[in-house]
Structures are given as C-alpha cells and as structure tokens.
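Students often ask why inverse folding is considered easier than folding. One informal answer: many sequences map to the same fold, so there is more than one right answer. In these notes we will look at a single instance of the problem. The structure comes first.
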C-alpha cells in the first residue's frame, strides 16, 4: 500500500484504481516470495490478546497454507483474489490481465485440486 501512496498520481490516472492497487499487491507478494528472507511476518495475535491460546487454529492454517503452496502460481493467485480479496471474476480478469473465461478455468482447476488435497482431508466435514 505504501508503494501506491508514493505513486498516487499513477493510481489516480489508472482506469480501474482497484485493479491497479490489487496488481501492485500481487507484484509485491511475488517479489517477496522470490527472496530467501521474507522480512517481517504479520502476527495473528496482538499483544493485548497474549492470554489467548496461541496454538488455536495453527493446524487449520498449516493445512490451508500447504494446500495453497501445492497450487501453481496462477491458480493460487486466482484463489486468493477471489476468496480473500473478494473480487468478482471481471475484477480479477482486469487485475490479472486475462480474459474472464481464463479466470473461471483457473478457479475451477484450483478448487478441484483443493478438494482432492490430502492436507485438507481432516478439515472436511465427515458426512
């Protein structure tokens, strides 16, 4: 977000500001993954809540992260934009610079791969 603030004239001049900002976020994420050290890591628990059990949800988070790491970059990006950033398919297509059909097929393949992922098997409802 700092990069967007520093270059606010570029953000303001963009046709779709949301897509521009999301693209900057994706590029920064990919750049951070290329390096061996990822810098600071965000904390899920603020110091005010230190008395809360720090291990709650670690297994679920680990399983989801392992499953996402198993996806190709394009599918992982599509899943994050759709389900974390809550973008529509058209917004995703604009951010990624691809056709809406490509976004749909990437999401479809990613969801299918996640449904079959063994890391997520324990999180599924036993029906």
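Output (designed amino acids):
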């Amino acid at each position: 977000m700092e990069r967007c603030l520093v270059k606010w004239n570029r953000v303001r001049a963009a046709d779709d500001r949301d897509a521009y900002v999301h693209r900057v976020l994706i590029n920064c994420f990919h750049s951070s993954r290329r390096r061996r050290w990822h810098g600071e890591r965000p904390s899920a628990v603020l110091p005010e809540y230190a008395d809360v059990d720090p291990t709650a949800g670690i297994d679920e988070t680990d399983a989801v992260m392992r499953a996402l790491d198993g996806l190709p970059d394009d599918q992982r990006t599509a899943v994050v934009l759709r389900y974390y950033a809550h973008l529509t398919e058209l917004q995703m297509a604009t951010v990624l610079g691809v056709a809406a059909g490509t976004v749909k097929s990437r999401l479809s393949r990613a969801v299918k791969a996640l449904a079959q992922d063994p890391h997520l098997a324990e999180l599924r409802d036993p029906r």
